[in-house]
Design goal:
Blueprint (H helix, E strand, L loop, with lengths): L6 E3 H8 L3 H8 L8 E2 L5 E4 L2 H12 L5 H5 L6 H34 L1 H7 L3 E5 L2 E8 L6 H16 L10 E4 L11 E7 L10 E5 L2 E9 L8 H14 L9 E4 L11 E9 L1
Antiparallel strand pairs: 1-3, 2-3, 4-9, 5-7, 5-8, 6-7, 6-10, 9-11, 10-11
Helix pairs in contact: 1-3, 5-6, 6-8
């Protein structure tokens, strides 16, 4: 059957795809590259287009695409196939980023001041006076991400009758947040000043100030690696003979839910004098 060009034996398919016969049979089992025919002797015969499909499946499997997901990709139109491959890679990318950043944090801590200096770019900026709606709470590190999200949503809703959010929300750490330390922490949502705030919502004036900051991608914001950024900014301020004039904070300028692990989302900052 291999002689007429319509079908290829398993060995010929393996040679053409540059994969082993064992790999082709492995793909057969979950239905990735099914043979066109199995003869009475149990020999597998494949269509001539199957070696190209097998190479594609092998590539899809390298970034850990599950066999069931890889099975349908060769039959999809180009744009849909590309979208499917991208969707399959996203959780892998998140997992890799979640593993990478703690390793970077440990390397930075072990390298001491030299490591922190090399890992973060520190800048300065002027911050105007802002009127902010706030929620303040003593919270430990395990509860912190969820509470920040919930408090931000509540304050953004409260900001609607005041003309909406006027600038990037920020989170002020009035004390250290760890497994044992509970802050307190304050979520702040800037609004236009001079208006009556909704009942039950706290507000205050955030004074104008100069601040030193470093920009982080989403994967770097997780605890404990975010601590390296705080250390780097604090060290930079001290090395310049300056002083911190207020507690550290995280300024969230991007859509957290839509951001990928390598998208810039947050500035870690200290007011300086």
């Amino acid at each position: 059957m291999g002689d007429d060009g319509a079908l290829l034996s398993a060995g010929a398919s393996a040679r053409r795809s540059r994969l082993s016969v064992r790999a082709l049979r492995l793909y057969d089992r979950p239905g990735l590259v099914m043979p066109a025919e199995v003869d009475a002797a149990g020999c597998h015969w494949c269509r001539e287009d199957r070696p190209a499909d097998a190479r594609l499946v092998a590539l899809l499997r390298r970034p850990d695409m599950p066999p069931a997901d890889a099975a349908g990709v060769p039959a999809l139109p180009g744009a849909e196939a590309a979208a499917g491959a991208g969707a399959s890679w996203e959780p892998v990318e998140r997992r890799v980023a979640a593993q990478r950043e703690p390793a970077v944090h440990l390397r930075t801590r072990l390298a001491g001041d030299e490591g922190r200096t090399g890992m973060f770019e520190i800048r300065e900026r002027e911050v105007p006076e802002q009127w902010v709606l706030t929620e303040r709470r003593a919270v430990r590190v395990a509860e912190l991400p969820g509470w920040i999200g919930e408090a931000t949503r509540r304050l953004e809703e409260a900001a609607r009758p005041l003309g909406g959010v006027a600038a990037a929300p920020f989170v002020v750490h009035h004390g250290e947040v760890t497994e044992d330390g509970d802050g307190p922490v304050e979520v702040c949502v800037p609004v236009a000043g001079g208006r009556t705030v909704p009942a039950g919502t706290a507000s205050r004036r955030e004074p104008e100030h100069r601040e030193a900051y470093t920009r982080l991608v989403k994967a770097q914001v997780a605890y404990p690696q975010v601590l390296s950024a705080y250390d780097a900014v604090a060290q930079w301020i001290a090395a310049g003979g300056r002083r911190r004039t207020g507690p550290g904070r995280e300024v969230y300028f991007a859509d957290w839910a839509a951001a990928g692990p390598d998208d810039a989302v947050c500035d870690v900052a200290f007011p300086v004098g």
